[in-house]
Structure formats: structure tokens, C-alpha cells
Amino acid sequence: MSFETASAPFPRNYSLEGPLNERAKQIGLANADWYKSDIPRPRMKELMQRSDGPATRDTLIWIGALILTGGLGAWFWGTWWCVPFFIVYGVLYGSGGDSRWHECGHGTAFRTQWKNDAVYQIACFMTVRNPTIWRWSHSRHHTDTIIVGRDPEIILMRPPELAKAVLNIFGILMVPQAWWAMLRYASGRLTDGEKDFIPEPERPRVFFVARVWTAIYLAVLAACVYLGSILPAMLIGLPSMYGAWHMLMTGLTQHIGLAEDVLDHRLNCRTMYINPFSRFVYWNMNYHIEHHMFPMVPYHRLPELHQEILPDCPPPYHGFWACYKEIIPTLWRQRKDPEHFVRRQLPATARPTPPLPIAVKG
Amino acid sequence: MSEWVEACAVGDIAEEDVMRFDHAGRTFAVYHSPDGKYYATDGLCTHEKVHLADGLVMDNIIECPKHNGRFDYRTGAAKGAPACVNLKVYPVKIEAGMVYIDIAA
Asked: What was the ipTM of the complex prediction?
């Protein structure tokens, strides 16, 4: 009889179609019970309460800023004055769209469901994420966060392909791949991995939205040809790329370099303190341990939740640099030593992490 | 044939809230609606076996704490992805200040 640890062996096959998917199920890592900090039910209920106010205010500011910066960018098109406006417009579109997609996908931003749905559809278009595919993919990400073979949203696998991460600062690989996937969906095709997490009855929605989006992009392309200018694409389409850098800067801090195959979000997520502009663009997802542990708490209540569970969590990072001075050397080392990762230390006030499942072989 | 079991006292669940009730290896969710009525459903979300009693009750909807799966707890109807399969509901009665559910229904 031999024992096998929960952690998947190297080289790791991260594919949802690979053998580690089945292994995760067998070993008890798939759809498992995750660690949760203790919060009394009345307080939890209070934190989960929905309201339309904060998200309506933030959405009006967001859309207003998009119109203003996009409008001024177009107005000054052909001069250097357009550059600062398109920089801000791009971040609001390509990166702000990412957080709006995310939070409205959870259905927590607004109390009124149709408002969540409406912003979700718009933000999905901006980030070229098929609304149905990504709703199901993100559900799986929350069920099996950074579980190898199960989580479809592991951005950098070990050993990491650093060139890809660098190119994706401006979405150079990510966005064309997303457009290619859109065309694939428009032609009615899914990969086996996608079929693993999208139920059959949901699939027609995937294809329908992809066809509508394809028509929109064709219209933008036609407008560019007609006007002899890329300005229409600077407003619709290209911001997904040139505005992606803020999304990448925030998104890479979420899980990169931390443990895989654990059942405690304190060990595989980062919470960091960042500036107010980035928090607005990112809709408070810098409180990432909190978000994963209690995904139904709206983004505007995460700072309060953070205070509730702070004594039970590893210390938060102070700023982007604090994260990246850990992430960059970790990724560099993982190129040669993929078993290396950052082991988060829980404070003395924290409850210990529960033991991982151990499989018995033979 | 009915099998009524005592789940809790009427005062145990705040209005517009839910409570977990385990019995004979099964788990249920008991609801107190904003209009003062009580309801009961299976305790686990039909999407991925998460305890609904940790979720949020809004009007007549229970929302799963993990993935935003939503159900009308009066009828068990799934109200949107990722909840696609309806929830089983159980009859409830109140007697002498106690909430009973018919787990054989």
C-alpha cells in the first residue's frame, strides 16, 4: 500500500481533458469543502445584503467616463492630445470591463437582477468573454480554485511561460485568441474542455451571442474601411487589448505563485491594499481571499468583510510592488523548479488550515 | 404517507432568512419568508451540493452562497444558471410554536 499526497505530480497536465481532472475527483479535491473563517450568521447575512445604490453610482461614473474619454479621444484623433484620453478609455474598457463582468456575473453588484445581467452582457463584450462560457467557467473556478485539471482559469501554469504573460500586458495573445474563440462559437463549436463545464441546454446561448458579436465586429471593421481610419476600432474592439494592462496587473496578483491543489483560499489567494483609482477599476477584487471565501458578499462590502476575517488570514500585501517583488522571483524560479511556490504563513490568531485529503493507492 | 418531523421553533429563524436542518442523514433548508410564512426545501444546491442555509434569502428567492444559483424556495423552481435543476420542496406546518416538515413528501 502506498500513499499519495493531494498535490498533483509534475509535469502537471492542467487540461480539463487530462488525467488530473479524474485524479482530483478521486482524491477529494474536486467540489470539496473549503475552509471558511468563522463569521456569525447575522453578521454574514448583513454583509451579503444587496443594494442597487453603490453599483448604480459606480456604473454611471464608469459609463460617463467612457463616453467622456472616448469622445475626447475621438475629438483629438490625429493629434497627440488623443493619447491620454485613449489611455484612460482603454483602462476603463479593457480592464474596468473585466471587473464588471466578474462582479455582475456573480450577481452581487446590484440587488436588481436585470441590472446585473445588463452590465454583465456589456462587460463581456468589452472583454471578449462569451457570457455563457465564462459564467460556467467562473463557477468552476470558484468550486475548484487552482485545482489542477479542474480549474479552467489558471492563468500561469507551472513551469510558467513568462513570454505569454509579457505579451498579454497588451492582450496580444489573449484577445486574438478570444476573437478566434468567438468565431469558433459562432460556427457552433465547443472544445471538449468547454463541454466539461457547460451543460447541453446552455450551449445555444453561447452560439447566439457569438454570432451577434461577430456581426458587431464586422460592422466596426466595415466602418474602419469606409472611413479609412482605425478610429472606430480604437473605440470598439482594440481597447480590449491596449487597455488590458491594468487587468493583468491586478489579475496576476490573485493567485500567481501561490499553492495549487489546496482547499484553503488563505493559501492560494492574495489580498492587497491598492490605490483608490485601481480599486474603482478593479471593483475591490484586491480583497481576493475574502471574495473567494465568501463570493456572495458584494464588492462594496468587501472592505468590511476584510476587517472581520483579518486575524484569521495571512497579512495583506501593501501595494502592487509588495506583490510583484514576491511574484516575479517566484515565477523566475518556477521556470526551472516548478515545484517551488509561495507558502503563505497564517498568523498566530488564525485557525489552522484543515489537512488535505490523502489518497491511498494499491 | 406523511412523516412529519420537528425542524425548529418558529422564533429560531429571523424573517427573510433560512436555517439548516439535518435529520436521519439528510439535510434540509427551512425558510421564514418576509410575509411570515415557512417553507422547506432540500438543503443542498442542485448545482454543486453547497448548503443553501449559508446563502442569502431575498424576498422569495434563496441564493446559493457559492455560485449565485437562485431558486424560488416556495416552489423549488431554479431561476437561472448555474442552477438549472429545480429544488425539491417539502410541506410545512406550524403546531404549538414549532415548525414541522413532511420529509416523506
From this structure: 0.87
